[in-house]
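Hi all, long-time lurker, first post. I run a small reading group and we've been trying to get comfortable going from sequence to structure in the token notation. Rather than ask abstract questions, I figured I'd post a concrete chain and ask someone more experienced to write out its structure so we can walk through it together at our next meeting. Sequence below, copied exactly:
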Amino acid sequence: MNKKLLVVSIAMTAICLTGCVTPPDESSPATESSSVAPGSSTETEADITNADLPRGVTTYTAADGTTHNLNRAEIFKASGVPHVNSQPENGKKQKLLVNPIRFQKDQSDNRDTIVADDALLQKITKAFTASDEELKQLAGSEIFSVQSFYEKSSFGKGAFDVVVLPCWVDYSGTPTEFRNAAKDGGGALASEYLKTWYNTEYNKTNHGLLGANWQYTWKDFDSDNDGFIDLVWNVYAYPQTENSTEFWWAYVTYTGDEPSFTSPNVQTLAFASTNFMTAKFNGYDTHTFIHETGHTYGVLDYYDYNNVWKPMGGVDYMDHNLGDHCAFTKFHYGWVNPWVIKEDMLEGGKVAEITLRTTTTSGDCLVLASPNYNMTAFDEFMMVELMGPHGLAERDYKSGYEGITKGYTVDGLRITHVDNRMWRNNHDEWISDPNDLGRNGGEVRNTNSHGGRAGNRLDMDFWPNADGTAKQYFTQLSLMDSSNIEQNWTNTPNFTADNGTLFKQGQRFNLGPKTAWAKTFMPSGTNLWNKAKTITGWDGLDKQRFTIDENCTFNYYLKVKSIVKDAEYGAVATIEIKLDN
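-- Answer (accepted) --
Happy to help. Here is the structure in token form:
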């Protein structure tokens, strides 16, 4: 399996969204408060608080009875395609080896313009390893190195020990000759070349170009001893093309090589031009490298490859390189364990009062579970998280990136519909058992590309019309926009999420029959979950046979009681949840 995940860099023009109603607290100054602990309640009538809720599960039980982390990398590994482990069980930081590769100059190539000197090598080193304060001074802005970003975003669970080679790796040919030789792609050839180069230099007197003080053997970059280098980042000194489907671009891929425990092979690798770094922020722009590193853990792009709609509205690191990873991504990776509420907990008129601190600074988030929810990130649910310009997201949300409208500059709840169910042998079915997923692996049923990425019936499930033809395609995750505006992510690729997307104090959310949320944003056009549909067969390639479970409905009623500023976490929200009777 050799898949390639591409970064996109699209300049978006801000559009005026009409018909919005200003949320009640939009123009009111927020009040300062001290840190509010999750589970605290300002009223005594709540039947359920955070302390009463179970947490989402990020483990599975192996056939031998042992417990292991359940994340995207582990599921891929079970399927035979190892990725970088987003949560190493041995507690060791994984090695990220940066390979700065340059080529022989081709005077006849008018694109061969990058000067690969010591100054550029220093920029690469700082972009991957610098402290926050150092990179802020160098870049002139509050951005983060790859190493610092993943330390913070993962709350330490998916952190890297980044090692940048102390010199350029000189390829023995021009960029054109390199491309002609790269039968399996540029990243694969650069990684193969690196392994030979590295071992040759290391075995020389004083470790050759690596230097006498160089402390790493090649095997040291396989921290989990699985026969593969943890991660190789190939940063090439040649301009990228303007087309993301071309050879010279930024992507993550996999070699398909077999493991070697004596001399580890490269399996997971990334490939990007130095130009992605040097165009902005005084030459230290890390956004593309952070985005692509996100793919190495196994998560997909959240933008639409077919450019028909925009399910996350651009405001996410795996959409348009903005802010931080969302709560779903972090749950997917095992970095957070959201509180989970199920409908049966609220029966008998019970009311839950839940507090959430800003997700990017605390990891707090809440799952509104679908029927028969399996407690993992690999099912269907609503994810609730508190957004705002804090922590990793502050600079991007306030200032924007790549011409994209700013992120969320006020505090508010983001609610996303997640359908991250997985399949193995039959796309029409899905795997509900987390132990089965961990042991045997699987692949996602849905992506955010309208109609699917790879042809009919592959990651393109849909809610059917009465005749079985497509009504609305499913997404892996998508916004439940608080504003319900006529122009939204479902009908325009130019939509960009903004403050009006978030749920503010006094606003409510439910999927009753008269709500625009159900009609607009649920594929069924009702309060039926996607899993209410079971595919029983096909008539040709474009018409399904199916059954519908009319009892598989969303019956929550959520109200934002308050959102207040918080000195430690940025903000704290209090929300009320009950059944929508």
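A couple of things your group might point at:
Residues 186-202 form the longest helix (17 residues).
The radius of gyration is 24 Å.
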